[in-house]
Amino acid sequence: MSGIALERRLANFRAARQAGPAVELEAAVRRNRLSRDAADRLAAAVGGEVVAATGGRYVRIDGRPTSLPLDRPQLAGLPDQPPSAAELVCLDIETTGLATAAGTIAFLVGIGVWVGDELRTIQLLLPDHADEPALLAALSDLVSPDAWLVTYNGRGFDWPLLVARYRMHLRAAPEHAGHLDLLPLVRRIFRHRLPDARLRTVETDLLDVQRHGDVDGWEIPGRYFDVLRGGPAELLADVVEHNAEDVRSLGRLVRHLIVAFGDRDRWPAAPAGDLAGLGRAFRLSGRLHEALECLDLALAAPAALARVPAIQPRAVRDAPVDSGWWTGAVDFPWRERRAPVVEPIRVGDAWTEQRLLVERAHLLRRLGRHGDAELAWVSAAAGPGRLAALAWIEVAKIRERRLRDVEGAIIATERARLAAERRRRLGLPEPRLEVAIASRMARLLRRRERQVSPRRLRRPA
With the C-alpha atoms ordered 284, 289, 293, 298, is the resulting torsion angle positive or negative? Predict the structure, then answer.
């Protein structure tokens, strides 16, 4: 670099240093004016009002109230639900992406609160990134410490993203008393008859709600970025309505749970698959007696074998009929040595009478009712396939360990061997299962021999 060029660059640098404060002030004024214009345009397009606060501006939209009366004591009686005195705050957000990293922001936050029997929606819309502190402060004012959040996949996405945004601005996220994420509950109770667990599918198949002209989720980030680039603010009108409908659907889903399962006197009239799913939800929350009651009602329903839905989750639909819902699907001697066992039903598995019996047998064992658990396993062993052998092994375990009936355990193990032999003749060998049965039989025979053989006399010292 020549001396003249270096001198010219140093002169430009000194001039910029001298004019720096004035340039920065002008840029700040320009950003403030653009932010004010963007907020005004958005408020006019979505029917909201501009709120000026410390840290920037945001647009608040107060939606129309929706009649959704809730019987809170009945809701509190369901598994993993908030206490009847807790305030419920429905929460749904629209973001600039699906990641939870620092570059993703929640530009629209929808809140739903109950006032009497009405659900009222409040939405906070972000005009520009620089106004985010004002929106987060407003959200903190809407979530009280004794409130329960009601979300759909909020534990995995919505709330962690908001917590990250609060941390980015060196603020603490609003405290709350609990979090009711409806997605796991829907999967446990209704997944057996839903093609997927998306909120829109739940609306159509459970809540009988049809959206018309709704914006697709993949379009939402692009629309917001187009508005930030100077595009028409009307692009976000459909996004705001989409978010408000999501919040209302959270309230509808809570009410649906109450109507379907809140009154226990109406449980016998519920679909058998839903009762089985509710029993699974009770079991996972540690309420085993209620879980057993649900399974008993499901087994007592007519057409117990007709519980496989016409539309099944793809993983269940494409799985082989005889595998996929117990451990040990791959059965080779050089693989895992632990004996196969029958596991409780997994989320997404279709309900059949045999699988209801398996779930019921597990519950009875956990409740310490070993005699009833033995009878449940014997009933499950009457079914076809690999389950028969596995169920007889469970019968042998109970008879040996709990009922102290070694002879009965030997009989059950022999029946397990016969069931495994039938599968071998059908061209479906189970090497690891057969090895486990043979090992159990040998051990039981040795134990019986020790019990019937005379005791050896001790020699005097």
Answer: positive
Q: Is residue 106 within 8 Å of 162, Cβ to Cβ?
A: yes
One domain, residues 129 and 241: yes
The answer to whether the Cα torsion of 359, 360, 361, 365 is positive or negative is: positive
Residue 66: CB atoms within 10 Å = 16
pLDDT digits (tens, 9 = 90+) for 413-434: 999 999 999 999 999 998 999 9
Residue 279 maps to a domain: no
pLDDT of 15 reads 65
Token pair belonging to 409: 């355990």
Residue 373 in domain: yes
The pLDDT value recorded for residue 354 is 84
Domain end: 262, 277, 297, which one? Answer: 262
* Amino acid identity at 297: L
Number of structural domains found in the chain: 2
Phi, psi angle pair for 113, to nearest 5°? -130, 145
Instruction: For residues 50 and 150, state if they share a domain.
Output: yes
350 contact partners, CB below 8 Å, separation of at least 6: 192, 307, 308, 309, 312, 316
Give the pLDDT mean for 184-190.
Answer: 93
pLDDT digits (tens, 9 = 90+) for 12-53: 667 666 655 544 544 444 445 545 688 999 999 999 999 999
Mean predicted confidence (pLDDT) in 375-401: 91
* Residues 236 and 355 reside in one and the same domain: no
- Residue 136 inside a domain? The answer is yes
In this structure, is residue 76 part of a structural domain?
Answer: yes
* Assigned token pair, 193: 């008859």
Gap between the Cα atoms of 402 and 420, Å rounded: 25
Q: How far apart are CA 31 and CA 33, in angstroms?
A: 5
Domain range for 402 is 318-452
120: left (phi over 0), alpha (psi -120 to 50) or beta: beta
This prediction has a pTM of: 0.80
